[in-house]
Structure formats: structure tokens, C-alpha cells
Design brief:
By secondary structure, this protein is of the alpha/beta class. It is built from ten helices and 13 strands. Bound molecules: uridine-5'-diphosphate (UDP).
Length: 331
């Protein structure tokens, strides 16, 4: 009998990491989750603990990684990923994208594993090309507040490519655009949990800037499918995965007010420094190479996400950190 494929997923207890664990468990892999739980939560993966083909290491991937046994794949998804998080812990953000990926790549080389890294649309910075194709090199301020995340991710891509080119390692790079779904943290500062949390608590929705900046939101199941296909493809260059359905943040606030059936007002705050004015993925490559495109509409995806947030306890919903913008650097 063929042995089960073994996959290491870093950032396993996070929003995306936990959904990836679920997917690979469903595909009958042996999943080794790793997380230091700075921003991840065990609650996201506790349903997997009883399974014999799941194990978990509470470990910081910026430190030397030891995993006994064979490994076929490594997914590097450990990283703070929302502006509030990476502004709170900037040095860890830089370390997990640099030392962390170096450890993952070294481990992959020893084990003969294929590595897929989570990169981001943030590598395009505040883009001057719209929509963003993979060939665009970006417009990033390395010393701005987002630099700790953007440059860590850019370095991570460079390091991954170097291992591919110079060591012949099998590598894949996914550039993830804004993604949403169940298990997002209510207090991670991202726009969707911020707005839904505010509506559920009866607070005003906080729009940063005048709300004319755009984003394009992808439902998590679509993203996971794209990543699954990319991992099993033979394509080593970066691939955008995201939903091109673009919307302004102002319109998005209106949609959330409608979705939650509340009559909350919106209030305007200063726009954070270097906040991208527009973002929309060009997904031609994903379509051609992976035969992938998103299937879940925003209205469907938002409904599923809202149901998740409604299932949270009152205590979680009212956690005092939700509206703490103290660490958010604004003009
Ligand atoms: N945003 C907002 N109100 C909030 C949180 C975020 O208007 O309470 C804005 C934010 O300034 C940005 C957009 O929503 O323009 C998306 O922010 P998010 O942090 O979700 O992701 P990113 O900026 O990384 O795309």
C-alpha cells in the first residue's frame, strides 16, 4: 500500500493555515501543523487533535525546525498578516518571513520536500498598475509601517527562488489577495471582521480615509482550492490567487450593514500610511496554468462568514481589544 503523503503546515492555527489543515486531512494526508500561537488560535484546529493523521508542534519557525520522519510537502503560512498585527509585532514579522523561510527551505532540502510559500498582494505595495499581474514589480515603501510585512514577503520570494535556482528545490509561490471567511479573528483589525464585529455590537462602522480605496475579496474555500492546485502543478513562478470582484471600502460597509440587517452609521478615521488605494488581482495565469477561478460570490461568502461570527460567544464578541487602534499608525 502506498504510504500517506506527509505535509508540514506552518501557521497551522491561523485563519488560512487551519483551513489548509482541513483540506489536506480531507485528502487523506498526514498533516503536521506548526504554530507558535502568537496570532493563531488552537480553537481553529482543536477538532483535528483526535485524528491519528494530525499532529501539532507549538514551535516558532524562526528557530531551527526539527520534524522527525519523511516530508513530502511544506506549506509556509506562518506570519502575522493584518496591518494591526504586524505593526504590533514588526520584528517577529520580519523574522518569520526571513529566518522562518530559511529554516523551511533548509528542512525541505534535507527531506526532499516541495515547498509552497504564502506570499501576498502586498508585494505590489500601493500599485501603479491595475489590475496587478505577476509581472508587476510593485511600489513598496521599505521603511514605511507596512515595510516589515511587505519586505519580509518580498525577501521570502527571493529566498525561495534562490533555493529553486541554485539547489534545484521544488518550490511554489502563491500571491494571496484579500481573503475572508470563518475563523478570521474578530480583533485582527482587518476590514471584514472589524465591520461585522462593529455591526453586531451596535457600533458605528469605521471607514479609514474616504472609503474610495478598493479591495477584491476572495472566499477562503476558493483560495484553498487554488493553493491545492498550485502545489500539485509544476509551475515555480509566482501565481496570483484572488477574486477580481473589486469593491470600494465605502460600498463594502454598505453591504455589511445590509447583511447584518442593522442600521449602523459609518464614521471616518484617518487613512493609515501607505494604505493601497486600489487592489485587484489579474488571475489570467491561475486560469491558464491551474484551470482555477473563484466560484463563491461575495454575497454567498459573506453569508457563510456572517453565520460564523454570529455563532461566537458574547464574550468573544465584546473582547476589549476589538476597537483598539492605538497600535495603528495613522497620519
Ligand atoms: N479599513 C477600514 N476600516 C477598518 C479596517 C480597515 O476602512 O476598520 C480599510 C483599510 O484602511 C484598507 C481596507 O479597509 O483600505 C482593507 O484593510 P485590511 O486591513 O482588511 O487589509 P489590507 O489593507 O491589508 O488590504
Amino acid at each position: 500500500m502506498e504510504r500517506r503523503k506527509r505535509i508540514l503546515i506552518t501557521g497551522a492555527a491561523g485563519f488560512l493555515g487551519s483551513h489548509l489543515c482541513d483540506r489536506f486531512i480531507k485528502e487523506n494526508y498526514h498533516v503536521i501543523g506548526m504554530d507558535n500561537l502568537i496570532t493563531g488560535r488552537l480553537k481553529n484546529i482543536e477538532h483535528l487533535f483526535k485524528l491519528e493523521n494530525f499532529e501539532f508542534y507549538n514551535h516558532d519557525v524562526s528557530k531551527y525546525i526539527h520534524v522527525p520522519g519523511e516530508l513530502d510537502y511544506i506549506l509556509h503560512f506562518a506570519s502575522p498578516a493584518s496591518p494591526i498585527d504586524y505593526l504590533k509585532i514588526p520584528i517577529q514579522t520580519l523574522k518569520v518571513g526571513s529566518l522562518g523561510i530559511h529554516n523551511c527551505l533548509g528542512l525541505a532540502k534535507v527531506k526532499g520536500a516541495r515547498v509552497l510559500i504564502a506570499s501576498t498582494s502586498e508585494v505590489y505595495g500601493d500599485p501603479t498598475v491595475h489590475p496587478q499581474p505577476e509581472e508587476y514589480w510593485g511600489n513598496v515603501n521599505p521603511v514605511g509601517p507596512r515595510g516589515v510585512y511587505d519586505e519580509a514577503k518580498r525577501f521570502q520570494e527571493a529566498m525561495t527562488m534562490a533555493y529553486h535556482t541554485y539547489h534545484g528545490l521544488e518550490t511554489r509561490i502563491v500571491r494571496i489577495f484579500n481573503t475572508y471567511g470563518p475563523r478570521m479573528r474578530l480583533n485582527d483589525g482587518r476590514v471584514l471582521p472589524a465591520f461585522i464585529g462593529q455591526a453586531l455590537r451596535g457600533e458605528d462602522l469605521t471607514i479609514f480615509g474616504d472609503g474610495s480605496q478598493t479591495r477584491s475579496f476572495c472566499y477562503v474555500d476558493d483560495l484553498v482550492e487554488g493553493i491545492y492546485r498550485l502545489l500539485h502543478s509544476d509551475y515555480a513562478e509566482p501565481v496570483n490567487i484572488g477574486n477580481p470582484d473589486e469593491i470600494t471600502i465605502g460600498q463594502f460597509a454598505e453591504e455589511i450593514i445590509k447583511l447584518t440587517n442593522t442600521d449602523q452609521k459609518v464614521v471616518y478615521h484617518d487613512l493609515p500610511i501607505n494604505d493601497p488605494k486600489q487592489r485587484q488581482p489579474n488571475i489570467t495565469k491561475a486560469k491558464e496554468i491551474l484551470g482555477w477561478e473563484p466560484k463563491v460570490s461575495r454575497s454567498e461568502g459573506l453569508k457563510l462568514t456572517y453565520e460564523y461570527f454570529c455563532s461566537l460567544s458574547e464574550e468573544e464578541l465584546r473582547h476589549k481589544e476589538h476597537n483598539n487602534f492605538d497600535n495603528y499608525i495613522v497620519k
